[in-house]
Each structure stands twice: as structure tokens, then as C-alpha cells.
Design goal:
With about 425 residues, the protein is mainly beta. The chain has five helices and 29 strands. The chain has helices at about 30-35, 45-60, 70-75, 85-95, 420-425; strands spanning about 15, 100-105, 115-120, 125-130, 135-140, 145-150, 160-165, 170-175, 180-185, 190-195, 205-210, 215-220, 225-230, 235-240, 245-250, 255-260, 265-270, 280-285, 290-295, 300-305, 310-315, 325, 340-345, 350-355, 370-375, 380-385, 395-400, 405-410, 415-420. The strands form seven sheets. It has a five-stranded mixed β-sheet, with no helix packed on it. Strands 2-29-28-27 form a four-stranded antiparallel β-sheet. A four-stranded antiparallel β-sheet has the order 3-4-5-6, with no helix packed on it. β13 and β14 form a beta hairpin. α2 packs antiparallel against α4. GO terms for molecular function: damaged DNA binding. Its main location: nucleus.
């Protein structure tokens, strides 16, 4: 069947909106400015998305030696494809966002959600941590109850969460309880990697490398600790003047480490050459405290999120060159899980929640709290997702490893976005 033709007036920059029922519509819902952003008519089916995909590929000049089917198969496996084909696939994906809807919601915690991680091999399974230290393993593709691990309550906030790449029935956590540990989903602690032993010091960030079998964690006073997976500490150094909000190992060269801090810097380290706090390769100053620093899936770029109104994209081959700056409102608030921008796992796209700020120069009246998608090269806004029934501030967004399902954290709520076919489930 030929793909359904999209209206000529529908631009690339859109907002996917599920119509709100009359019963729950508030008087101020969808003001005139917001109405302009609504997508009219029913969303697209997977058949339409497939049509978009082939329509996008039809315009490409693919060499005879390159089988589109083979290229799509390589893409599905996460392998590299020709740049022109990759661009076509990205455009097709952006078109498919018009059919994305929230089809699953959960609010399992009595405190806000603070971290999430997708299972590396099960595309419908993720783990979510809360400010009270609770952790939920949720396979939203089945009706069985999620696995739930009770936390300690106040003071137990899960600040970092990663599945163990060597055994995906286990996961690593860093927490305000003052530990970095390895646990299983029966609630057992398998190994404690770091423990402060006091409520004055806690751990704020975490990353893990399967290739080099390393665990790295940062604390609230600027220390970064590197350990092997047997729990042996390799070094413990104060690398920042203040809290280390994020640590990230490069996925392709895992001896490169990025650390972000509220001291308004992001630093790049070669783990083979760390001798002290001055042995960084590069220091990237920011105008405000920094919430996150994430390497792109191919390791070639670094995305940073400050605590006010700026995203930056650095080239890993040219750290000294000015970064690509993306103005974006996401200011910090004490009782809000910090907003962190992330990469799409397959495309050069940046995903981040919007916290409208009346002082932001491009702010418009009645601006919506959308999920914004930017092109990682140009910094151009490509799409905005929005659901009027879930209109809170969305702090965290992560696509699953397949790149076709989005998990979001909005206060106490966990939202799962997928295409219209999934959205029609009850």
C-alpha cells in the first residue's frame, strides 16, 4: 500500500499530541499558541512509518553494490551504513515521531524518580530508581507485576543506575546513602565498591565499562574513584572543586573519561595517564554548573547540559575548537530531578526535556513542557513531543538500545512513548 501523504502544511517541527478528553480538559488547556503546535488528525500506523522509511530511501542515490535490505539489516544490528543512507534513515525516523504516543505509564514510588537505565538486550525492559532508594525493574511488554526493591527512604536517592554488562541480571547503583554497589533484582547486595560511612559524603554519578572491566564513580565533594569489577580501587582523586554530577566513559575508547561538575567545568581524562587533579587532557569551562556530559554512541562527540539554558556539542577530535551551542531552557530547581540531555542510540540526535523560562529570550506565552529533539550537527530543532495529559516537566529521556521506544521521567511518573500501533493498547 502506498504511504499516506502528509499534509503540505505540516512542517518538520511538530508536537505529537494525543487529544485530551473533554472530562479532563482544563480552562487554560491548549491556549492559542499551543494550538498551533497540535497535530491534526489521527496518528500514523506502523504501515505508514514503513512507507515513510521507503519514501525517504527512494530519493537516495544508492550504488548498485549496496543492497538497501542488507544496509537496513546492518543498521538494525547497530552497524555502520553509508552516510547518505544513514541520513535517509534519520529523516524517516524523524517523520515517524508524528505517530509517537504515551502508551504506558507508571507511578510506583512515593518520591520522584531520579534515574533510569534500559536493559541492554531486552528492548521492553528498564530499571528506574527513586529519591527514596527504591528500584523497579519493569518489563512493560508483559502483564506481570514489576520487580520492586524497597529503598531506605529519605537520604537513599539513587543517583546513578547501570546494568552489569557482564551479567544483566545484576545492576550497579550510586546513591546518597553513601555507597556504590552491585546488586541483583532479588534485593541482594553482591559487592560494595565504595562506602563513605557518613551522611556528609555521598556518590552522585556512575559509569561502567565491560571491555576494560572498570567502574567509575564521583562524589559530592569532587572526588572521582576508579575501580576494577573485582572491587579493587585503582585510584581516588579529587578532580573537581565541587560535586561531580556526571561521569562517562567513551564507548569506543573507554580509557577516555568525561567528568562534569557544579564547579562549572567538564574535564576530559586519559585513564592511562591520570596522576593527579592537574593531569586532565582538557578542561571545558561553562557559564553555569553542569548536570551531564555524555559521549555520543560512536564516541566522536560530547554533549553537555548546564543547569540553565545551554546545551553544547563538542567534537572529540577538536576539543579546543568552539563547541556547537544550542540555546535551550532547562533551568535547575532543587526539588526537580536535574534535566539531562541524551543521545539517540542510532542517530545524531539530541533528546532533552524543556522547562519553559520567561527570561529565556525565545520564550513564548503559554510555552509547553515538551520533549525536544535536536540535530546533533546543526543544533536545529527537529521535533517536539508533547502529551496534554502528561504536561509536567520531563527531566530524563532515554531511547532503548533499538532506538524505537522512549522512556521519560516526569516527577513521580515513568512514561513510555512508542508509535501509534503501541499507543492504541489499553
Amino acid at each position: 500500500m502506498a504511504p499516506r501523504k502528509r499534509p503540505e502544511t505540516q512542517k518538520t517541527l511538530e508536537v505529537a499530541v494525543r487529544p485530551k478528553s473533554k472530562r479532563s480538559r482544563s480552562p487554560r488547556e491548549l491556549e492559542p499558541e499551543a494550538k498551533k503546535l497540535c497535530v491534526k488528525g489521527p496518528g500514523s500506523s506502523r504501515r505508514f512509518d514503513s512507507g515513510c522509511l521507503w519514501a525517504g530511501l527512494a530519493s537516495l542515490q544508492v550504488p548498485p553494490s549496496c543492497s538497501i535490505v542488507r544496509a537496513l539489516h546492518r543498521h538494525k544490528l547497530g552497524k555502520a551504513v553509508r552516510p547518505s543512507l544513514q541520513q535517509g534513515l534519520q529523516q524517516a525516523f524523524l517523520h515517524s515521531l508524528a505517530s509517537y504516543r504515551i502508551f504506558q505509564k507508571a507511578a510506583p514510588f512515593d518520591r520522584r524518580a531520579t534515574s533510569l537505565a534500559w536493559h541492554p538486550t531486552h528492548p521492553s525492559t528498564l530499571a528506574v530508581g527513586s529519591k527514596g532508594g527504591d528500584i523497579m525493574l519493569w518489563n512493560f511488554g508483559i502483564k506481570d507485576k514489576p520487580t520492586f526493591i524497597k529503598g531506605i527512604g529519605a537520604g537513599g536517592s539513587i543517583t546513578g543506575l547501570k546494568f552489569n554488562p557482564l551479567d544483566t541480571n545484576q545492576f550497579f547503583t550510586s546513591s546518597m546513602e553513601g555507597t556504590t554497589r552491585l546488586q541483583d533484582f532479588k534485593g541482594n547486595t553482591l559487592r560494595v565498591f565504595t562506602s563513605s560511612g557518613t551522611c556528609n559524603f555521598w556518590f552522585c554519578s556512575l559509569d561502567v565499562s565491560a571491555r576494560s572491566r572498570m567502574v567509575v564513580t564521583g562524589d559530592n565533594v569532587g572526588h572521582v574513584i576508579l575501580l576494577n569489577m573485582d572491587g579493587r580501587e585503582l585510584w581516588n582523586l579529587r578532580m573537581h572543586k565541587k560535586k561531580v554530577t556526571h561521569v562517562a566513559l567513551n564507548p569506543c575508547c573507554d580509557w577516555f573519561l568525561a567528568t562534569a561538575s557544579v564547579d562549572q567545568t567538564v574535564k576530559i581524562w586519559d585513564l592511562r595517564q591520570v596522576r593527579g587533579k592537574s593531569s586532565f587532557l582538557h578542561s571545558l569551562p561553562h557559564s553555569h554548573p553542569v548536570n551531564a556530559a555524555c559521549f555520543s554512541p560512536d564516541g566522536a562527540q560530547l554533549l553537555t547540559t548546564d543547569q540553565k539554558s545551554e546545551l553544547r556539542v563538542y567534537s572529540a577530535s577538536q576539543w579546543d575548537c568552539p563547541p556547537s551551542l544550542i540555546p535551550h531552557p532547562h533551568r535547575h530547581f532543587q526539588h526537580l530531578t536535574p534535566i539531562k540531555a541524551t543521545w539517540h542510540p542510532r542517530y545524531n540526535l539530541v533528546v532533552v526535556g524543556r522547562y519553559p523560562d520567561p527570561n529565556f529570550k525565545s520564550c513564548t506565552p503559554h510555552e509547553l513542557r515538551t520533549i525536544d529533539v535536536f540535530d546533533g550537527n546543526s543544533g536545529k530543532m527537529m521535533y517536539q513531543l508533547y502529551d496534554p495529559e502528561s504536561s509536567g516537566i520531563i527531566s530524563l529521556n532515554e531511547f532503548n538500545p533499538m532506538g524505537d521506544t522512549l522512556a521519560s521521567v516526569m516527577g513521580y511518573h515513568i512514561l513510555i512513548w512508542s508509535q501509534e500501533e503501541a499507543g492504541m493498547r489499553t
